[in-house]
Every structure is written in structure tokens, then in C-alpha cells.
Please model this.
Amino acid sequence: MVSDPSRWDEKYRAASLAPVLRVESLLQRHQRDIGELSAPRTALDIAAGTCHAAVYLAKQGLNVTAVDCSRVGLALGKELAERDGVRINTTTADLTVADLPKGPWSLICCFRYLNRDLFAQIPSMLVPGGMLFWRTFNVHHLSKAPAFNPEYVLQPGELARHFSMLDVLTLSDGDDPKENTSWIAARRSV
Model:
């Protein structure tokens, strides 16, 4: 069996640097909120891949750490950051066995990755007023991609339940069968 880091390294070896920065719409919608984050203005991009979210956040003035299991993906992310005139920090870690980098974090984001074991750690890693952005596939994705592993899709209501201690700014939690992703933007109380 091929390990997850090896599989992702192989995938990214076949990739090239993206011609343009792909910005996650959830971050774009909250650009003003992100701009108003107070010190320490640090961000953690979980399962960052080629670091598009990390680079976008660095362009918003945050000190960003991108964590991913793939050294190759993170190297592409460093190239992307350099091309876009910003600096990001990278940490290679397989989050199925490693802990998240310690904060404190003003912002934590994760896109297209699901590891429920991380959910309990996140709220306390945010500074008061810190923000969480999470979007990944939900159960409705299985109708479009039946071969997708059902362990890696959210069930309806999961994000609201796991992050109930945060103040929700926006939430789509798998109730709409036309939406194959669930997402949350939330803030830790001050």
C-alpha cells in the first residue's frame, strides 16, 4: 500500500506551477474580516497542498504557516509565494499521526481535507477574535463521485456540531442536496 505522503508527492511531481493564484471563495467573501484581524496576525493553512490559500492570506498581510504531508506540494507553494511576491512558512507533517503546529493563530483554514481528529484542537488554538474557515466534501459528493471514500465526507450538521463553541458567520452544513461541499466561517469570541 502506498502511503498518503508518497501518493501526494507523486501527484504533485506530475503538476506544474499554477499560472494564476486560485483563491478560495470563502476567503474572498470574508476578505474585510481577514483584514481586520488583530495581532498576532498569524494564519495556519491545514492540508495546504500547493498553498494557494496560504499565498492569498500572506498577500493580506498575515504571517502564514502551511502544513501538508507532501514536500513536493509545499515546494510548489513556496514557488507560488515567491512568484506572487510574498513569503510563507511551510511544515511537512502527516496529520494522521502528527499534531498541528502550535499557535497562537489569528486564522485557521482548511480546504478539501477531512480529519475529524483535528476538530477538537482547533477552537483553543485560535486567539480571541480569531477566525476559522473550513470547506470540504459532504455526503452529497458521493452521488457525483461514487468511488470517493465515504469516510472523508461530512454528514449534515457535522460542522455546526463540532464548532458549536465558535460564533458562526456563515455555514452551509450539508442540508442542500445540490451542494457537494459543506463550509463554515466562524470566529472565536473575544
